[in-house]
Amino acid sequence: MKTVRRSGVLVMTGLLAACQSEPLPELFTLPTFELVDQEGQRFGTEQLTGEVWIATFIFTTCPTVCETLTRRTRQLQERLDARALEARIVTFTVDPEQDSPDVLKAYAARHRADLARWQFLTGPKDACETSSSAGSSSRWRSTSPTMTPP
């Protein structure tokens, strides 16, 4: 649940940052990562260098907050488009064993994601765990039987 809450904070921070006219401060450096996107293409920090981007963390079988987070992220995408703001959206899976590129592509289509702006990433479990915990020492924790961590 903390990962999902952190994702909401990142989305809001990204939205506010996209509205800024002065350079953004660098708060911390993310570890280098390389995963694969919904097309099965390599995607990582190299493609994001120098970009303003917003990170969210989901898993496609999540029965609760992930759907809400993804809907709100789509609304953010629409607002960025309406204002012609340059910002990327990157959604990381926290369940790479289930969320293959094909599964993420179907999820993206269902949520009308603009894949020119919004990437959905998966990869080896250890690489996904490193990416999802970057910048924070908290890890996925849940006591809800419907929110079993992947």
Structure description:
This protein is an alpha/beta fold. It has one domain (2-14, 34-133): Glutaredoxin (3-Layer(aba) Sandwich), CATH 3.40.30. Helix content is 39%, strand content 15%. It has 5 helices and 5 strands; from the N terminus they run αββαβαβαβα. The chain has helices at 2-18, 45-48, 65-82, 101-110, 125-133; strands at residues 34-36, 42-44, 53-58, 88-93, 118-121. The strands form 2 sheets. A 3-stranded parallel beta sheet has the order 3-4-5, with helices on both faces. Helix 1 runs parallel beside helix 3. It is globular, with a radius of gyration of 14 Å.
Q: What is the helix content?
A: 25-40%
Please state the CA-atom Rg, rounded to the nearest Å: 14 Å
CATH level-4 homologous superfamily: Glutaredoxin
Overall mean pLDDT stands at 78
* Sheet with the most strands: spatial strand order: 3-4-5
Largest sheet: 3 strands, parallel
Large-scale geometry: globular
Topology diagram in text:
Elements: H1 2-18, E1 34-36, E2 42-44, H2 45-48, E3 53-58, H3 65-82, E4 88-93, H4 101-110, E5 118-121, H5 125-133
Parallel strand pairs: 3-4, 4-5
Antiparallel strand pairs: 1-2
Helix pairs in contact: 1-3
Short characterization:
The protein has 150 residues and is an alpha/beta fold. 39% of the residues lie in helices and 15% in strands.
Question: What attributes does this structure have?
Answer:
39% helix, 5 strands, 15% strand, two-stranded antiparallel ribbon, Glutaredoxin, 150 residues, three-stranded parallel beta sheet, 5 helices
